[in-house]
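Each letter names a residue; structure tokens follow underneath. Both lines appear below:
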Amino acid sequence: MRITVQGVGAVGGFGCGVAALAQALAQGGAPSFPADPAPLDRFVPKRTQRRLDRFSRLAVLAAHLALEDAGALGDDPERLAVVVASGYGATGTTLAMIDSILESGDACTSPIHFAGSLHNTPAAHLSILLGAKGPSLTVSQFELSVPSALMAAQLWLDQGRVDRVLFGAVDEKSELNDYLWERRAELERPLGPAGAACGEGAAFFLLSSRDEPASPYCTLDAVSTGRGPAPGQPYPGLVLLDGGADDLPGRRLTPLWGCMPAAPAFDLAAAAVLIRQGAEERVDCLARTEDGDFGLIRLGPCRR
């Protein structure tokens, strides 16, 4: 089945939206990595946002940007599914919950912080805000969170369970992440490529299995995970993700949005933009782990 990327939404240290992402790709600059969820005010009333912690705000903003980019805001959500990937989850809210336990005891633990500390909170908020009637799934597999979650989205579309999937990934910086990053560096076991900084943000996509009036970015040709060498020959335009092999051709885009488990979703967004601009014909996105596992995502051009 032909699966297309209809819309892309991203928020990170480079800014907010596809235009900011394209500008970062063109300039190749290194931004400050804290992401700003303030533009969410355009889509969600501030009163409603009181229920959202920063982690969920980043995800909800990127998801709405993807829908807006596809011209799908307000479309019928009857056959819309939601799939979210995250490596670390809401570490900031989790730390706040632990602090409330230490300060006031188990009986006075903040229920708001507890609910926000769950990995699937952004997917739940999205389904409620959009009224999505399709299934909802959250996947956490550290570096392979994005390809694993994308495999589920592809399966639902291939099986005809839904017509569209709002797929994306989100991770946030926190005191805990920064501490672990610095500690691992001291032990000479960095969490990402040498010299890479810990980043944060969210990147979302509207995937579709039906003919859409809007011109798509690209097609999703294949998604696979496994152990050992990735199957097949890489495309010349290979985009290397965090932990990618240095002996393969292509670009490492990590400096643009920092190193994090959600970074493969940003690389996918960049690949989609490059294909739509005609800068690349096809792109392989390859993620590797320290244990030798891989996640391979192949994108190709749309030909009607």
Remarks:
- The domain at 4-214 is CATH 3.40.47.10 (Peroxisomal Thiolase; Chain A, domain 1).
